[in-house]
Amino acid sequence: MNHEIVIGLEIHSELRTRSKVFCGCANEYGAEPNTRTCPVCLGMPGTLPVLNRQAVDFAVKAGLAMNCTISGFSKMDRKNYFYPDMCKAYQISQFDLPFCRDGYVDIEVDGQTKRIGIERIHLEEDAGKLNHDPYAQGSLVDYNRCGVPLIEIVSRPDMRSPEEARLFMEAVKEILEYTGVSDCKMQEGSLRADVNLSLRPFGQEKLGTRTEMKNLNSLRAVQRAAVTEAERQEALITAGKTITQETRRWDDNKGESFSMRSKEEAMDYRYFPEPDLVPVVMDEGWLARIRESIPELPQARRAKYVQEMGIPAYDAGLLTGTIQIADLFEQAAMTCGNPKSASNWIMGEILRQMKEQEGDSLDPGIDGIRLGSIIGLVERGEITQASGKKLLEAVMGTDADPVVLVERMNLRIQRDEGAVIDAVVLVMKNNPQAIADFQAGKGKAVGFLMGQAMGLLKGKADPGQVKSVLEAKLKEFDGGAS
Ligand SMILES: [Zn+2]
Questions:
Q1: At what angle do helices 53-65 and 284-292 cross, to 10 degrees?
Q2: How far, in Å, from the CA of 43 to the mean position of ligand 1?
Q3: Which of 135, 210, 293, 414 has the least CB density, counted as fewest CB within 10 Å?
Q4: pLDDT score at 482
């Protein structure tokens, strides 16, 4: 590239509220078309919207988690446009007084922290969905999504490569998931991004003419679309042509984008304050309650795992994959007192079992306290590693107490030295051939005797203890014989 790439993202995220933003219809994906609608979200004359408080909480929560300033006074506005996916012919959104402004999200680029500015986060309603049906020879519209609460996160044009755009999108997704604001199911469209991209000569301050690519619904699509668009613009500039400010549609199958329309300006929408809704005044108490509900975020947790718990960076990345696993890890590590062991058990046993399960459940099937207590039993040598796995399997998906089960399943290691000696002596007495083999120098005989003794002790003995008793007895026997 002979030019510097400048990228800004507009990320739309559906909020995980139970009902829609201005009516009581269920906010759920996948229902029969037009079965989650009412006169309000269908925009019937005479209906009035009522703002969903949970949606406001979520918008502000996302803003706080992304270091934004929260407006004490906000209002909703009408954005006027005509398109069949929105039957009112306007969308209720926020224009000049969004809930959140001037935040940032840090990303890691080649081991360096880079800060990406957030210009604003505002609340709005989603539109319906047009299904282009070749059999009906036209388009069918499904209004189930109409009125689903949405936040739009507008970044500053701070990204300088397609990779940075993807990393930023990933970081935002992680924050929205940890805070529980959105389920971020990109394949269902609950998180999607518009990529604004322009080029400029290196060292130039003024931004070039930008294009906007709409509705990218995977992290990979964000990066690929940005790479392709940067190359397209570079080729145009090299050929002496100018870039047109426009909206483009990205076709992920073809790996190409197509011009949709010239980019509209804000004035085209004739924004005006929504007359059917009162402004939102947010006091300190309300704000404090939202602030308290924000959990520790993945970036801070990764740093803590690496620096304070001695976990390798790669493992810390896996352990913070979801908040459910991160919480499980922290609780298990605290209970057993050994973060490294907790990490090994989660990455070895828990993540493997979750992968084998059907569906995309985030539930690890056990809580950190019980997992930590199983690990503790193994760590203290009270049960063997194999018994630990057996115990974990029995506990997973139930509310059984491993400390009770360990007795009921009779898993505790037998450490009574007298019992071990008795078993070894009995085994030696009953297997004269093995003793003869041992004396003839056949090493395999020791393993055989060891197995017999462990069997006699029902597999609950400490193998190290049995081995040392057996070796001592064989030595005695050998010495006595010669
Ligand atoms: Zn409705």
A1: 70
A2: 9
A3: 135
A4: 44
CA pair distance 124, 93, nearest whole angstrom:
4
Can you state the percent helix, strand and coil of the chain, rounding each to 5? 40, 20, 35
Confidence at residue 341, expressed as pLDDT on a 0 to 100 scale:
95
pLDDT of res. 427: 93
**How far, CA to CA in Å, does 274 sit from each of 118, 349, 408?**
25, 54, 66
Domain ranges of the chain: 3-287, 296-408, 417-481
Q: Where on the phi/psi map is residue 472: left (φ > 0), alpha (ψ -120 to 50), or beta?
A: alpha
Low-confidence ranges of the chain (pLDDT < 70): 263-266, 478-482
- HSE of 122 in the Cβ direction (CA atoms, 13 Å)? 22
CB 269 within 8 A of CB 81: yes
What pLDDT does 296 receive? 97
Q: Which one-letter amino acid corresponds to residue 104?
A: Y
CA distance 434 to 426: 13
CA trace torsion 370, 331, 366, 401 (10° rounding): 10
Q: Which of 79, 61, 81 is nearest to 70 (CA)?
A: 61
Which is nearest to 226 in space by CA: 259, 245, 248, 253? Answer: 248
* Distances from the Cα of 279 to the Cα of 94, 105, 274, 293, angstroms: 11, 28, 9, 24
Q: Which residues surround ligand 1, an ion (CB under 5 A)?
A: 23, 25, 38, 40-41
From the CA of 12, how far away is ligand 1's center (Å)? 21
Residue 223: Cβ within 10 Å count: 20
Entry pTM: 0.85
Q: Quick one: tokens of 345? A: 């058990």
CB 5 within 8 A of CB 161: yes
Q: Which pair of structure tokens corresponds to residue 18?
A: 């139970």
CA of 36 to the centre of ligand 1 (A): 7
Tell me the fold of 417-481: Arc Repressor Mutant, subunit A (1.10.10)
pLDDT score at 263: 64
Hey, how many other C-beta atoms are within 10 angstroms of the C-beta on 130?
14
pLDDT, residue 479, reads 57
Q: In one letter, which amino acid is 72?
A: G
Q: Determine the distance separating the centroid of ligand 1 and the alpha carbon of 444, expressed in angstroms.
A: 77
Q: How far apart are the first and last CA of the chain?
A: 84
The distance from CA 157 to its chain's CA centroid, rounded to whole angstroms, is 25
Question: How far is residue 313's CA from residue 298's CA, in Å, rounded to a whole number?
Answer: 13
- Quick one: tokens of 60? 């502000």
